[in-house]
């Protein structure tokens, strides 16, 4: 047989085999199902959990928390429907059960503030180590209110959208923390938005207690002095009796307390005066806005993918 004839016969046999294979009926592939993303599904994740330790942030997102209650609040009939809302996050460490094991978990919480204008542009920094709360501009901590864009609107031009939802955002990069001083890093762990309510006396104006951190030797004296309830001589004598204060530091301590009381009373007077002046200069529209401001607190709802937090909710306005 000639070479060309052999090659043709082999080619014809390959064509037959190809036709046989092609006539086999392939079973249909099962339809793949992808759950549609909800329009506000990532709202809680986009809200910065202010006051959370940096090294705990990853643990907050280790569970698939369900905030459908927050999403539903923006639907028709919900408490946030059709309103301008400002949201900030925080975390609450709680001992909870999950999959037959008890553990301390950082539970994410979202606070919604209904207000026609930003409810605050300041951050309050407080801890047990600080004598008093430090109040600073949000932008000093690289935080600000920014518009939240729902998923269905993310293909649109942001400047054309009239957002009604604003979230507290922080642009501080975690990778850059190693270049910051420890005190600066710690400030992030003790901060929460500072809300000024001009029609309500705050704790500073009402309090008659003064936190005292007296620089004594060999260790500082930590205590609280109430200028209405405590008598200074008796108060000092008790500290000496309990060996918290040495006898030779008695007079110095008393003068120190008197100065702290004077500072606190002055701060109270200035706070009352500032509040009175703010109310006088306020428009009727702004007064009404402060009066109608509402706060709502949202915890994750129960699901099989995350711990049940229904028994550890704090706050009368928690959802």
From TrEMBL:
InterPro entries: HIT4. Keywords: Coiled coil. Residues 254-288 form a coiled coil. This is Myosin-H heavy chain. PANTHER family: PROTEIN HEAT INTOLERANT 4-RELATED (PTHR33704:SF1). It comes from the Eukaryota. Residues 1-31 are annotated as: Disordered. GO terms for biological process: regulation of cellular response to heat. Residues 18-27 have a biased composition (Basic residues). The keyword Coiled coil applies.
